[in-house]
Every structure is written in C-alpha cells, then in structure tokens.
Amino acid sequence: MASQAEVYNPGVRQKRRWGTALASLARLLGDPDDTVQVFRIMRALNGDTTGRNYRKLLRQPQGGRVAYRRVELRERLSDRRWIDGFAAGTVGAAYRAFLDRTGYSAAGLAGISEQAFDINVEHPHVWFGRRERDIHDIWHVLTGYQADEPLGEACLVAFSYAQTGGPGWAFIAVGGALKSLRITRDTAFARAVWEGYRHGRRASWLHAEDYEMLLAEPLDSARRRLGIAEPVRYRIAQERLGRAGVTGL
Fold first, then answer.
1. Residue-wise pLDDT tens digits, 187-243
2. What is each CA distance from 222 to 60, 67, 73, 81, 141, in whole angstroms?
3. H or E stretch at 6
4. What span, in angstroms and rounded, lies between the C-alpha atoms of 230 and 109?
5. For the chain, what is the radius of gyration of the CA atoms?
C-alpha cells in the first residue's frame, strides 16, 4: 500500500495544492464514506501544520514527556484486552462502546490514511501526524459528535480546525456546511458546524494530553477539565434533520 502512496518528506516545504484539495472534496461530498479523501485534503493543504503543532507540544507542561515517550497510539488502541480493562463511566469505556457500535478501529483508520500517503516515516513530525490521526475517534467520544453521520463528522472537523489550525479541516467543514445549505435550505447544519469550531477554540489544547491516562479518567470530569462544552446546536440540527428525513448529506 505504501509503495502506491505519496511519501511524506517533513524536510521539504510543502506547497498548498488547491486543485488536489478541490478534487478530493468533490469526491468526499459525493461519498462521505470515501474517507481517504480526508487525508488527501490534509496532505494538500496543511503545509507545516503538523510540524508547528509538534513544536507547540514541546512547550506544554507535559508535552516534552509525551514527545520523548513517542507512544504509537495505533498499537495501544488496537489492544482489545487493554481497552476492555477500562471501568464503566471512563473515557476508555465510552471509546470501547464507540468501537463496538460503529465497527471502527484504530488499525482501520490507519489503513485508510496509508492509501493517501506513507505516514510511517521515522521522524518526530510524522509521529505527531500519526498521533493526530489515532486520537480522532477519541475526540468523537469527548465532544459527543457521532462518527457515523455527516453532521457529526463535520462538527468534529470544525472542532479540529480550531484545535490544530490546519486549513484542510476548515476546507472540509465549509464544504459540508455549504452542501447542507444547498440541499436542505436550513441553517441548522451550518450552525452546528460553527458551534463545533467555537467549542474547539474554547477547549484546552487536546494534543497535549497523555491519552493513556485520559482514557482512564471519568468521561464527565474529563470534559469539564478540558472545557469541552455541550453540543447544543449539534443536537438541535440532529433533531431537525431527522424530522425532515435527511439521513445523509
């Protein structure tokens, strides 16, 4: 798979490729399950975002330790015995329920990303990129945005833009919001996406977390500690779209 993918060289300045991003966005909006397009958009637009955030990690109180340990979360999150060990009510238990409900997995997400580019390069910036990929579904759990619906993904994409500053996230969020306006003539979806961005701005910087420790923390207290607000607009949009019979966008 990696031999067919673009190789990521963190030592080369990455130019933004808007044509590639537009083509991938069109494919993604046409088929929300074509997740590989998300990674192609990130690769096309995010430039040095990963490197910038890695350097930010090193400035955080526990960031140096996290970077020094360089845990591969894909491996940790694929250890079902470890995941099954989390007590009820914890972030880890909620993540376990998420995996069981959706059928998703850390290994599955990693496999999709590797169709877009080779992310297995030995470099601290690339490790950080893998880490961002692997915590994506944990962010679904923390924020309450469902992963198996376009609305929930769009809201988390907006939240992720606020957290990372990566233009690729904003590009997808705006694309999803505009598509919803065109199809439904209702602003509920777009308002929920904007709420996701605002919540991401107000929350603590989640990249600085030790995720092995976070998973053992009670979910409600983790949300309070991290400043993750209730997704009120998101739930309103879910209800309105449901009443209108719009199950996908």
1. 999 999 999 999 999 999 999 999 999 999 999 999 999 999 999 999 999 999 888
2. 18, 22, 19, 23, 11
3. strand 6-7
4. 26
5. 17
Q: pLDDT tens digits, residue range 108-147?
A: 999 999 888 777 889 999 999 999 999 999 999 999 999 9
CA pair distance 41, 141, nearest whole angstrom: 24
Instruction: Give me 200's structure tokens.
Output: 């991401």
Residue ranges of domains in the chain: 2-243
Q: Which residue has the tokens 């808007």?
A: 18
Going by the DSSP 8-state scheme, the letter that residue 5 receives in this structure is S
**Tokens coding 4:** 């067919």
Cα distance between residue 237 and residue 186, in whole Å: 9
Burial of 47 (0-12, 13-18, 19+ CB in 10 A): middle
Secondary element (H or E) of residue 63: helix 63-69
CA torsion through residues 152, 110, 125, 226, sign: positive
Cβ proximity of 22 and 178 under 8 Å? no
Cβ atoms of residues 2 and 120 within 8 Å = yes
d(CA 185, CA 41): 26
